[in-house]
Amino acid sequence: MEPAMPNPELLKDLVTMKMPFGKYKGALLCDLPESYLVWFSQQGYPKGKLGMLLQTMYEIRLNGLGGLLTPLKGK
Hints:
This is DUF3820 family protein. InterPro entries: QSregVF_b. It is a single chain. The protein has about 80 residues and is mainly alpha-helical. It has one domain (about 1-35, about 45-70). It contains 4 helices and no strands. It has helices spanning about 10-15, 35-45, 50-60, 70-75. The protein is globular. The termini are far apart.
């Protein structure tokens, strides 16, 4: 079964929103290291939109779909 395509608005948020706290505060969500995303997947995601975006980014990386974000990063 193929993973579902994320909502285009979510993809835009991944390349524009910055991490609001923690070790990678200020980094774009799409630029967070995979190890950090794995840590959240094991420890639990924050509540709300940020948690949803981090989970989406984790799934994108897990499924090798990072190329989806490349065209959006240049805008």
